[in-house]
Amino acid sequence: MKKENNKMSLFSTFFKIGMFTFGGGYAMISFMQKEVVDNKKWISEEDMSDMIVISESTPGPISVNVATFVGYKVAGVLGSFAATLGLIVPSFLKIVLLAQVLDKLQGNEIFQNAFFGIRAAVIALILKTFLNMLKNAPKNGFSITIMISTFIAALLFGIDAIYLIICAALFGILHSYIFLRKEKK
Amino acid sequence: MEILNLFLSFLKIGTFTFGGGHAMLPLITEEVSSQNWMTMEELINFIAISESSPGPFAINIATFVGLRMAGVLGALMSTIGVILTSFVVILFVARGFEKFKENKLVKACMTGLKPAVVALIGTAVVTTASAVFFAESAVIDVIKTIEFYKALIVFIISLVLALKKVHPIKIIIMSAILGILMGLV
After folding, report:
1. Whole-prediction pTM value?
2. Distances in Å between the alpha carbon of B53 and those of A131, A163, B49?
3. Which one of A82, A105, A128 terminates a domain?
4. ipTM field
């Protein structure tokens, strides 16, 4: 009986998180922390901060990662399902409704002018994410080399992001291996 | 076939995105243009809509593209595709949480991945900017148009506000109003 309640509670909590957090990713973290760590006490604060680090090194959106993880800790695999489903349902319904409104507004001149402005603002928002990440990135020779070569390969040679990500991971392994060997000597 | 195609595309996007949010943009942009899902202009509009409405970006964009290309079933399959890898990986990680945290191979991968992701977001800035500023024609011609300067003004104001940590939603609303006002001039 208690487990059933857990799953309902997981669903409703992550439904709330999906419903009220904007922008996704890092913007979601503080809200999730409040709900999952402070209110529900499902996982410890330490688990949460570890989870953020792990999310960076596993594929997919951070919020989905956290939902799956918390769900599993509380109620096993079914708990993961309940939490993840709760997270995506509000978003899903919203887009289904929104898509219809958008199609109707497409020909409207005011709408088009508004989005002309908005598109320019979006560049600024992405640029800000980039600058933040650049600030937090490690500044050693290896890291900078990877950064510059990825940038050039993507932009000038049009190489797919997937290949660049795989290459970067392999170089990371190669570099760490050589580095560790040197340290041992 | 379209539905299977959507599922596989979003599976690819979900699998090779680390960190979520804007980190997803380079992969989305590539798929959007190679699969002809929508124009670059529509994509940038959608990024703004996603930032100013609740829910994770990954879920929003998967639902929207899926819906557009193949109805509600398409939306469902795209959404499942984008979260599947994340879900499965975290289930495994949750079982061996401590081990994963200390895993040397994962750490080694990350030393290469992190800077590559930063660089890829940098390329997203460039592709979005060129789509917004040079949508109509080549560089030289565009600089003569009034549209270019309008976009530039909104971009600069937005960037200043973004760097002052003004909330993205406020910036998007402001840019929409500026867009409408400039449309009247």
Report:
1. 0.82
2. 23, 32, 6
3. A105
4. 0.83
